[in-house]
Amino acid sequence: MNLEFFKKNRYSLAIVFFTWLAFFLPILSGKFVYFLDDLKIIYFPIETLYAQFQHNWQLPLWANEFGFGQPLLAWGQLGFFTPLHLILRALYVPPLALLQISAAAYFLIGSIGMFTFLVKRNLNQYAAALGAIVFAYCGFSIGHLNHVNFYTSTMLLPWLLIAIYTLLNKQTLARATTLALTAAAIAMSGQPQVTLYVFIAATVISIGMFVQKPSIRAIPWVIYAVILAFLLSSLAILPLQEFLPDTERAAGLPYQELFEFSYPPWHTVTLVLPYFFGDHSNYWGAKGFQELAAFTGIIPLILAGGALTHWKQHRSIRATGIALVVGGALLALGKYSPVYTYLIDNHYITSIGVVGRFVFFFDIGIVLLAAVGLHDLTERRKAFFFGYLLPLFLIAMPFGIAIQADQEIRERFHELWVYQNITWWLIFAGIAIIPIATYFKKTWLIVVLAAGTLIFYAWDYNPRAQTSQALSLSPFIQDLQEFRDANKYPARLYSAERLPLAGNPQSEIKLSEPISPLFSVFQKISPERKPFDCIVVPVQADSIAETHVGIMVRTGFDGTIWYNKQLSSADAYKDPYQHICFPGVPDSDKDDLILSFTSSENTNMKVFTTPSKTDASNVYFVRVAKPTPNQLHRSKKNITVQYVPDFPRSEDIESQLLMRHIQAIAGSSSARWIGALSVRPYREFIDGFFANDSEAFDGDGIHALTRNKKLMDFVGITHFAQALEYGQTNDPMLSAGYVLEKESDTGDSIIRLYKNPFAFPKVFMVPNAEFIAANDEIRTRLRANSYDPASNVYLSGEAPPNLSQLKPELPLQATATILTYNQARVDVTVETNKEAFLVLTDSTTPQWQTYIDDKRSIQLRANTIFKAAQVPAGTHTISFRYESPATEKAKTLTTIGIILTLLGYAYGYKK
To answer: What are the distances in angstroms from CA 118 to CA 371, 479, 680?
Structure first.
């Protein structure tokens, strides 16, 4: 690109730029940030640690802050060597700001890249602008905006295509080197699955370009570029390849899990109505809202259909577009596709976690076809309009069937038809703008409306947070950092919004009788914290039958009415949580507010109740139409309607509690959920014992943290955190013996940090051990009530230890002290009166080697996950060291790649 390129295409580039500006304006203003889901709980803490590694000139080989320890470089979640991130870290840009700059920059890079590629393929500037905008703001791109490791790959796809196109036209060493650098940047930056998809899409499109203009001479140059790209990205590829056998994906996913996130045919309506099944906070469609995002708007679909009516020009683009659309659809349909089912049944696919992500190919195909379709409008008009029929038919047919078969879908369609007028205006305008703009030769109008439609839908697809809220640091950070400074190792935190250690709170929740003329409910509202203006009350409707309940808030039983609403069964069925607000109530009246549920008809709606705390909070179950004061008094029950005050949330509760991986910003480690490709024994351990992804309560109503308390202590969980409702006086954590370390008011709840006085130290000695090779059997034995982790561990590893020298009759007298605790090395000094076993409660992989007095010893795992060593009697130094052969090999290969890259450009410059 040069100045002439920008000058020639200035109007279309302006549309691309201002579309980008309109979408990212809230972020560029500095008032808002993307701080949602994985961006918050994975990439933000990863970038926090990456900055520390980079500033210390270290490779992120291992990080104890993720789970019980995880190999960051090999994890594949987000590339340490993502080019833009390397630069921003070097400039000491804070991690949260880095991620915002990254999103805005990559989307601009991607849209400009796609524009350039399409112009090079001889499409006019407005066709290229349309393709660029659809590429950057289609459902897949926007749906995965919070997945940083997606867009760092996908937004480089156009530049990879440009590099391939340039090399196919003229073969030089410099061009081959540029292609290698672009491919390496993709491989080093993205998530493995998405990186693979990018390379597959590039291969399909490149085959089309090669067939259109064959160049046998280019083949060896492409092979050279592939080899060089592998050398340059080997630090991302080889460690991941080494780590994969130790992840949960090594043996493939369960059969049913391979069909999760299948794209139902009737979801094609979301191509033009992305919020048909709800939004991020209230979604009722197929699993899940963001993973199945594929919206393009009506205009690109029509243009894509029109592109199929003309084949004299741009055949390769049309053919590859069709191949990507058809292939992506057949795979993304998952269980609804005989092709995908065949591939699963015959074990061609064993580890694709989210089948819906195949919509990436569909959207890229639409990008190509829509751009060609708009280009066709300048030359061919009649036949083009047959293209209206195909996309409208493909959307309407499965959705029409679903409307007939599913009453909920039918009612949602009716609701949109009646209330969402702007949605239909956008669709009708999209259908009408194509012939109008074509007739008046104003092609740019089509691009502007398509861009406006996409921005309208994409604007709030990923909710933004206020920057001040995202930057509000947890009050627990200092305490956790002080623990690390005092003990040389990180605190281990288990945090959740609720930690009920005894009894199942759901078992106390009961449903009332259905509201009817002879059954009304009256409840005094008296939340502990004031002032309050809103409450949330769950109401259950057994079906969507057309019945109504009147919900009223008034002063006393006959005073001023502050809230009055007729709730339909259909509304309660879709959303049982009713938000009731009554602003403007005088403070003098707030102690006398009465919430009531009444109806003049028999309904199918019930309210939830729980045991009341005080007599003042008791509910009135009234069974007469107009109760007298005496009848009201007799109708009082020792229960209360389940409601909670709805205070404005001033803080992000996940960040305040340091939930999941956010704890890494405090230098602590998590005992909760970890992302895909985690250390398999760790994932199995926390799933089995700590209710990570499973039901917390067993059949006896006992919480997993209570049943497995000795294992919680054994693994060294030093701290717990949770949120409590205002006025909650019964704290099961305190009654269980945990110590309250800090309490803070977040604005809508009280959050607490507890210290666990029963936690085992990071390293300790155990007198007895038993070697069991199978992890399943070990976990079964760990569940036994008789198991004592202080006296016995179950070992597994590369070879059985020699247990014959143990002396069970001699009491163990031993100490273990940490000398050095680094990410990739831990040194411990041990004094013991007899041979025993040292346990270090950090997870291990085959790359962790054990040394006793600098001599290599056998590698052992304690209780399936932890580092362990058999230590002879006496004083010894035990060293656990992370040694990755793949990383060492990758360093050499990367060095060779860098040298070849420099030589390639030097030769090209000289020539």
So the answer is: 8, 55, 44
Name the least confident of 217-226, 291-300, 573-582, 815-824: 573-582
CA distance 372 to 390: 16
pLDDT digits (tens, 9 = 90+) for 68-79: 999 999 988 899
What integer pLDDT is reported at residue 726 of this predicted model?
73
Average pLDDT (712-733) is: 85
Question: How long a stretch of residues is the chain?
Answer: 911
Phi, psi of 794 (to 5 degrees): -105, 125
Which stretches within 673-724 are classed as H helix?
A: 680-689, 704-707, 709-714
Q: Which amino acid is at 350?
A: T
What one-character-per-residue DSSP string does 483-497 give?
HHHHHSS--EEEE-S
Question: Coil, strand or helix: which one is 562?
Answer: strand
| DSSP per-residue letters across 425-464 | HHHHHHHHHHHHHHHTT-HHHHHHHHHHHHHHHHTTTS-E
Q: Which of 25, 21, 94 is nearest to 464 (CA)?
A: 25
3-state secondary structure of 576: coil
> Tokens 């039918």 belong to which residue?
410
- DSSP letter for each residue of 250-306: TT---TGGGGTT---GGGGGGGT-TTTTB-SSSB-SSS-TTTT-----HHHHHHHHH
Count of other CB atoms within 10 angstroms of residue 534? 15
Look over the chain and give the mean of its residue pLDDT values, rounded to a whole number: 88
Question: What is the C-alpha to C-alpha distance for residues 673 and 70, in angstroms, rounded to an integer?
Answer: 12
Buried b (16+ CB within 10 A) or exposed e, 442-476: ebbbbbbbbbbbbbebbeebbebbebeebebebbb
Residue in this structure with the two tokens 């945090």, named with its chain if needed: 495
**Pairing mode of beta strands 836-843, 763-766:** antiparallel
Banded model confidence at residue 348, pLDDT cuts 50, 70, 90: confident
Nearby residues of 322 by Cβ (< 8 Å), 6 or more positions away: 308, 365, 369
Question: So what's the pLDDT on residue 310?
Answer: 80
Which residue, among 305, 287, 288, 308, has the nearest Cα to 296 in the 3D structure? Answer: 305
Q: Once rounded to an integer, what is the mean pLDDT over residues 18-27? A: 96
290 vs 286: CA distance, rounded Å: 10
Please give the average per-residue pLDDT across 389-413, as a whole number.
Answer: 77
Lookup: tokens for 737 = 């013996």
- What is the rounded distance in angstroms from the CA atom of residue 363 to the CA atom of residue 368? 9
Q: How far is CA 355 from CA 2, 103, 260, 789, 793, in A?
A: 41, 24, 7, 42, 40
Question: Quick one: how far is CA 600 from the chain centroid?
Answer: 46
Judge contact between 230 and 181, C-beta under 8 A: no
Highest mean pLDDT among 149-163, 291-305, 635-649: 149-163
Question: How far is the C-alpha of 328 from the C-alpha of 312, rounded, in Å?
Answer: 25
Contact of 423 with 416, CB cutoff 8 Å: yes
pLDDT given at position 383: 52
Number of neighbouring beta carbons within 10 Å of residue 728: 12
Angle between helix axes 359-377 and 315-332 (nearest 10 degrees) is 150
Q: How far apart are CA 80 and CA 59, in angstroms?
A: 8
Least confident interval from 191-200, 310-319, 333-342, 644-653: 644-653
Rounded to 5, what percent of the chain is helix, strand, coil?
A: 50, 20, 35
Helices (H) and strands (E) in the chain, counts: 34, 30
Sign of CA dihedral 684, 686, 688, 694: negative
Burial string for 627-659 (b: 16+ CB within 10 Å, else e) reads beeeeeeebeeebbbbbbbbbeeebbebbbbbb
Please state whether 455 falls in left (phi above 0), alpha (psi between -120 and 50) or beta: alpha
Structure-block tokens of residue 808: 């069970």
Q: Measure the CA–CA gap between 275 and 762, rounded to whole angstroms.
A: 49
Q: Is 733 exposed, middle or buried (0-12, 13-18, 19+ CB in 10 A)?
A: buried
